[in-house]
Structure formats: C-alpha cells, structure tokens
Specification:
The protein is α/β, with parallel strands linked by helices. Helices cover 38% and strands 14% of the residues.
Length: 442
C-alpha cells in the first residue's frame, strides 16, 4: 500500500495559521521532518498510527516517556478510573506519598522526593537547591548535555560546526538561544565530557566557587554516548573531595536503564537526582530527589520551589501504575528492555556490514542511535560534531517512515525499546533498514 500523508499535510497547513512552525515544539516541525510532520492519531503497544491510517513501529516512544509502550492497559485503567474522582486538588494526596515511597525504594540515595512537572523544571530546581545548600553560585555543565531550556543551561547543548567550538582545554561557549538573561551564563562553567582532567582544571580555576556538577549518566542529546569506564566514579570522587555536589540528570535514563537508573547500573551515587519522561508514563510528571539533609533546604523559608500542578493526581496515578509494572516479577521488564534494545542494535550492525554502510549503532541497553560515521565509536560532543554525518541520518529516518518505521528524525536524539516491542518488531525494522540502504541513495 502506498504511503500517503495528505491529511497530515492539510493539518500542517492549518496549524501554520495558528502556531509557530505549526506546532508546540521546534523538534516536531520542518527542521526535523522536512516539508511537514506526520500527525499522529493514536498509539497502541509498540505502534503509532497517523491521521492517514499509516501504521509505524515506534522506536521514539515520545522521546522515551513510554517504557511500557502506548496505551498500556494498567496505565489506562488507573487514569480512566481515577479521573472520575477529580483531576487536580492542589492539596496533599495519599497517591503522591505512595509514588514517593516507590521511588525511594527503587532509587539509591533518594532519601527525600519532591515532585515537579517537567525535566527542565526539575533540573532548574536541582541547581537552585545546590546553590542554596552550598552557598556557592557556579556549576559545571558538560558540552552536548541537555538539561532543559532554563537560561543557565542553554549553552553548548546542540551540534555545532567543529571549527566553532574551540580547543577542548578552553571551550567556546555558544548560547543555544536568543533572549537569555545577559548574565544567565556567568556562573555556568562548560567542560568537555568523558574527560576527568578537564573537570580537574575547571575545579582548580574556580576553587571554592562551584556548588555542583550536573551530568547525564549517559549522554542522550548527541545520539547515545556512554560514559568511559570509570568516568562517573571519577566524577563522584572529584566532587566529593572538593566539597561539590553531584547532580545526576536521569530525565532520560531514569526508570529505563535499571530500577535505580544510572546510579545502579554504573554503581555511582549522586547527591541530587532528577527524573521525568518515563516517570509519568506519558503524563507530565517529574521529580528531584536526594540526600535528606540537602533536600531539607527546601523547607519553608529556605530554597523556594512551588507548583500548582506538582504531584498532579492523574499524573501520580499513571506513575504508580507504570512503576509497579516495571517492578513486577523482580524487574523482568528491565531485562526485556535490554534484550530488545540489544537485539535491535546488533541487528543494525549486521545490516550495516552486509550493505557496506559506513555507520554504527551505538547505545546502552534500551537506548541506541544510528550514527553515520567511519569511526568505531563516538565518545563525546566533539566527536559527534566532527565525525557524524547528520543529514545522512535524517534522510534515512524520513525514508523509513515510508516503510512503516518511526525513529526520531533528529540525528541528535535516539531510539528506545519498550515493554511492548517484540522480536517481530525488531525483524520488521531491520528489513526496512536493509531495504532503504540497499535501494536508496546512501
């Protein structure tokens, strides 16, 4: 059957008359999707269906927000039944206590939990908390890491021409947006990732001024880039020895890589953690958590954090249902996520070899990205900017839509496995990739 998307085109033309770029986020617009995006009508399990009726095996899963897949029965039941008793009270509820207790049981070091609405908000609050608790203003942020659209973080988060980013010993700081407060980045120290010596130099240059180091456990905004062996442990040692807090941003990796996230998988402890995406199972739920004495700084009169929608009742119901499902049967769900993710990655590697395609499938367990490169691995932001053919990937992703496979068309993002994906979905995807690489102009 021909891949027809006329209804999506009509909707996009209509959307352009009422929304900038025809949507509510630049990632959903022409920059990633070409002439117009696909408008999705519904999701079921591992698949989504657009308004024209086309079916796609979905490896984007709402940028990782759906570890159970689309419309999982337990989440649907919890939300459908729960919403009849009210959507929001902006008052204390039992369900938020239950979800906080589940997080405390799952996540090492989550002695106290505070709910928020988005990953951006949780990261903003985490840095404010670190500054308030330590009485210091500066923090270290790594090249290529994305912690949301808060002014203080919006630097060196997106791919740049390699000639523009300077020497790794003295990175050129490139703001990611117009309209930032002109002093917003004054206290933001930018450092290359996977380079402990670079962190040491930054600490030496700003002795006694640094409140925190914030890092993703796995770099997830430049495809998927794992930490070098021992890197996170070395970062933990450096921060502890210099009286600096370590903030681990698990917005992408939390409740996906392992029950306890990157902390558990890499055996590294953080002082403050942030969560979003998979926590809400598709609803806007986020959290930050950490050591009790640090989190206590949020108490009234200390570090301010408000939010009418914090711990929204419907979001908490979805989170409880999803987290309980992930923990069922001694965490069999996480083993499934890893098995499917590794099967897809290994299969892609075979397809690239068989078709003579200069590409790698790089990832960690349930997370992976196709990188068109001659190198055997991409290890940091500078590698990604200098050695990855991003337009070539986007061409592949857009062509895969025509074959019924939905991967993020952004080369800087990645694919994720879900509980709903099966070996059949993997095989279907591999055949689609093989067909495109064999018959397309790559």
């Amino acid at each position: 059957m021909a891949h027809v998307t006329q209804k999506s085109k009509v909707l996009f033309d209509r959307a352009l008359r009422v929304m900038i770029e025809g949507g509510s986020s630049p990632s959903r617009g022409p920059a990633n999707y070409g002439a117009y995006p696909l408008f999705i009508a519904r999701g079921e399990g591992a698949c989504v269906y657009d308004v024209d009726g086309n079916r796609y095996v979905d490896w984007m899963m709402a940028y990782g927000a759906l570890p159970l897949g689309h419309a999982h029965s337990r989440v649907v039941k919890a939300v459908s039944e729960g919403v009849t008793a009210g959507t929001l009270f902006a008052a204390a509820t039992e369900i938020e206590v239950e979800v906080a207790e589940i997080i405390q049981q799952m996540v090492p070091g989550a002695e106290r939990v505070r709910f928020a609405n988005t990953g951006t908000e949780a990261a903003m609050a985490a840095v404010r908390l670190a500054r308030g608790y330590t009485g210091k203003s500066k923090f270290i942020k790594f090249e290529g890491h994305y912690h949301g659209w808060y002014d203080d973080f919006l630097v060196n988060s997106h791919p740049q021409p390699i000639a523009s980013i300077g020497h790794r010993n003295d990175p050129v700081r490139i703001a990611d947006s117009s309209g930032l407060n002109r002093h917003a980045l004054d206290d933001t120290i930018v450092v290359p990732w996977n380079d402990l010596r670079a962190v040491e130099r930054a600490i030496e240059s700003h002795r006694g001024e640094i409140a925190a180091v914030i890092t993703e456990g796995i770099m997830a905004n430049m495809g998927v880039i794992p930490p070098a062996p021992g890197y996170l442990q070395g970062l933990r040692e450096l921060t502890r020895n210099n009286n600096i807090l370590l903030i681990l941003d698990e917005t992408v990796t939390g409740f996906r890589i392992a029950r306890g996230g990157c902390q558990e998988h890499y055996n590294v402890g953080a002082d403050i953690l942030t969560f979003a995406k998979a926590l809400g199972a598709g609803l806007p739920v986020a959290a930050f958590a950490g050591r009790g004495e640090i989190m206590e700084a949020l108490a009234w009169g200390g570090v301010l954090h408000y939010g009418t929608q914090n711990a929204s009742r419907v979001g908490m119901l979805a989170a409880r249902a999803s987290l309980n499902e992930l923990c069922r049967d001694d965490g069999v769900a996480f083993r499934h996520l890893w098995r499917i993710g590794e099967a897809l990655r290994a299969g892609l590697q075979r397809v690239f070899k068989e078709t003579g395609t200069p590409a790698i499938a790089q990832g960690v367990g349930p997370m992976l990205q196709i990188l068109f490169t001659d190198r055997s691995a991409i290890c940091d932001f500078r590698d990604f900017c200098g050695y990855v053919d991003r337009p070539r990937y986007q061409k592949l992703a857009l062509e895969l839509f025509r074959h019924g496979v939905y991967m993020s068309p952004s080369p800087a993002l990645h694919s994720v496995s879900s509980l709903a994906h099966t070996d059949e979905h993997v095989a279907f995807t591999l055949e689609a990739v093989r067909s495109v690489l064999t018959h397309g102009q790559f």
